[in-house]
Amino acid sequence: MKKLAPYDERTPLGNFLVNCLTIVLAVVWVVPFLWMLSTAMKTKPEIFTTPPRWLPETLNFDNFILAWNAAPFGSYYFNSFLVATVTTVITVLIASMGGYALARLPFRGRNVMLGGMLSTTMIPFQVLLIPFFILMTTLRLVNTPWGLVLAYVGIFLPFAVFMFRAYFMDLPREIEESARLDGCSWFGVYWRIALPTARPAIAAVGIYTFVEAWNEFFIALIMTSSDTVRTLPVGLVMFNESSAGISWGELMASSITATVPAIIVFTIMQRQIIAGLTGGAVKG
Amino acid sequence: MKSTTKYLLATGLALLVASPALAQQTEISIWTRMSEEQNKPLFDAFEAANPDIDLVVEYIPGGKNHINKLIAAVAAGTAPDMTVLDVVATEAFARLKALKPLDEIIAGNPNLSLDLFPQGPLQTGVFAETHYAIPFGGDASAVAYNKAMFREVGLDPDNPPKTWAEFVDAAKKLTVDRDGDGKPDVYGMLFVPSIPSLTTFMWLPYFWMSGGEFNDRKAMEFTFNSEAGVKALTYLMDLHLKEGVVPPSAIGAAANNDNQLEFLQGRVAMNFDGPGIIARAARDVPDFELGIMRHPTPSADVPSVSFAGGDNLAIMDKIPEEKLPAAVRVLEWLSSVEAQRIWFETSARLPVRKELLDDPFYEERPNSKVYLESFLNAHEPPQTSHYVEVQQYLRDAFEQVAFGMASPQDALNEAKTRGDALVRRTQLP
Amino acid sequence: MPRTAATTWEARDDRKFSVSALLDRYAGLALATPALAIMVLLMLYPLLYAVWLSFVRWTPSDSTFIGLENYERLFQDRIFWLGLGNTLFYTVWNVVLGTAASIGIALLMNRPTFLARILRLMVFLPVIVSSAVAAMAWIWMFDTEFGLVNQVLKLTGLVQQGVPWLNSPHVTKWSIVIVNIWLGTGLSSMLILAALQGVPQDLHEAAVIDGANRWHRLWFIVLPYIRPTLLVVLTLKLIGSFKTFDQIFIMTGGGPLYSSETVLIYLYRQGFEYFDFGFAGAVGVVFFVLVSVLSVGQAMLLRGGSK
Hints:
heterotrimer, B: alpha/beta, 4-stranded mixed β-sheet, 18 helices, globular, C: mainly alpha, MetI-like fold, two-stranded antiparallel ribbon, 15 helices, 2 strands
């Protein structure tokens, strides 16, 4: 990170105030997470105290175990993982193909497709949810992982195509040109040259899609009705509603376990994600 | 022969012998309205007693979730073989032609004879003179109260209020400002006007005791905005608006508030509840002194009435023909005396077999007995195809009054108007 | 004709009618088809279906054409207008407060200090959390009696009694705005940060030489320079506000008294609780028109000013 420019430096007092503000905001933003963690490790009586205690008496992991057993979280985890992974793979594949075509290959209707995609990003999918539900019903895909994957691919595709298109448009053409001169087919160029070079875009789109699919709630709510297909967010909310009275400790514990994969993925790949997202969006 | 070959042959023979038994296991899928925790003992017992039927249970707890999911499944053609059904849902599903009529099945079957079941619960499974569901478990409402708190303020814990006037009086005494800061720290009564199913469930007994009728099916209109409706609504809301015996945080609280917890932690002295409170109190606060009282009545000469809710059992219409005998077996077993006994001992439901209604189990448990009495003296639930929507309209009315935005009469009038519009649109009462 | 990149690009094979040649010539179409097919199947078709539904009374067994009846009923429903009003309320506040917050936080993040890096991480965390999880955590935070927010407020003496964050028709709206900002600032501030870092040094230096102070620089140089990004952020927030569903559904279900009801919650209830698909279709169509008009309008307004 570059050093602060001379005209951006502040008086010591100014510095201090700005730092204070930064700390306050950082704390405010992270407090809900800390509170979740704290609640997850408390016993029932400790949760309902005034004034609030931050540190429980003992680091109690009972809630995590209780929660895991109280509802089929293993199944939820598996389903979320399955759906998110398949969605990501399919989306990256199809979007990279489409993005490449839009970036490089003039074909009839290209502009129409571009315009169409732009407008689809504006449609809130909830509008389409009922016809979509009816469609899935007719195709017998309701309450199946495939139905959910299809829905997710549909939602994440426009954005993903945009990202790939922006990325491909920026690629220098020389390598592709020479490959073409050598007699390579377009598909070959795409598969052997463009795609491997597009690793940052693949990472960004892939991770974004995975995390969004992992966290998605509304469509999963509509499309799943049995525990064998349910994903984590819906499972969590159902768990919340099921027991006689909410068990905050268990709920917070299971929420944390549900979020851990996304946090891990994000922490490892943060630079790629942010670079991919900000680069594509600003140019697009 | 080589030993491996012998082994394979033996296994093969064994499988051949065993296969008829294995082959005969029929799989029946059934959806229930309760959580796994509450239902498991019963279904486990079923599996033990019926090894030839593999019961695949789907647990769908949480208020209206079950009805929503079932309607969606029926529409999608993915309905299960059988289902537990809310007593108020028979009409809606019968109209959808989703349930198998049971008259023929019942006729030849001594285990499902109609006079094994009390009249009230039995009627809830009937639509258009046909039986679509048989009783499974009963539910009733009453008022749970904290005996210790009663004693503290000088009320007799074994003699709870019987009339509305006595009740208000007791609630006021129980609303106490302990630390002298001008605000009450404990409240007399908990009443949540914001959850459609719960609020309607709570209000209906008071409505019926005031002499009200929910709807007039022939005239295709709702009649809950009558004087009785206003009287009941006013009584309940005045607990909050006039007498101040309800905690302010209960007003406007959506499903995310844990009412039972407020009660169990001694922050309110009384609470509307079903039989589930007994098990929960025993589990979470073992030294809690729990008392159960029947709903107080408008005046001494009116008998106390409760809401007869609960579950029925139904076979779905699209069940494959070959599974029908197994499904009937499920019906028989789940409604049998032995199963019902397991059921009411492990869950919050009340038995629906006449033989069990004076079981010694209840003599030993005075609190459960009050629920049983409430169940036996309950008014049958409202009969309408639009229960889901009307509950919402009523909830809106309650909230309007609770927040002081409308008078009870106006609020109920609006709810009736909306209900009637729905009836006209769909041409269904 | 000189061999330009374009002609090198396109002409490949003289065997014009072989499979590989055809595939190659129509490569663009071929590569784009899967994406196109999915979008037609999953976006265009449902949209048209929704339009058809809106003119019909739908029951599981049949659907009867009823013309504009659904729309009539929709526009006469007081609750719909409430929902619409709330949706606009959230949109305005999300966009205004959210963008301002994002800019402010981005400025704070745009420093080489350790603290700034911490801020970046903290602010971005909510983005990777499911809105369902966030909603439930905030229900607990907002609990009237034991929630952290009220406990802190009471401890610092700012209030006497717990604020009914989710129980009051007046306060609940703002609780939702708070949660929306908590969830949404992460992405926007990152975008703005990236843009801020792209502002060339010389612009700053020139302004300083001309005597501009920090605020002048911000207002007259930096913000106009990152205008494209600001437009993106505004659009994201506008559309995002309309699409808000998860938090509201889980935290309040639209209550109390429909004070947190939005058009989408209304749509959900009509479609998936009352199963009145025809009516819900009409709601969807109206909603779609609304969003489109607003997005296009906003785009035109903002782009028009950039001349």
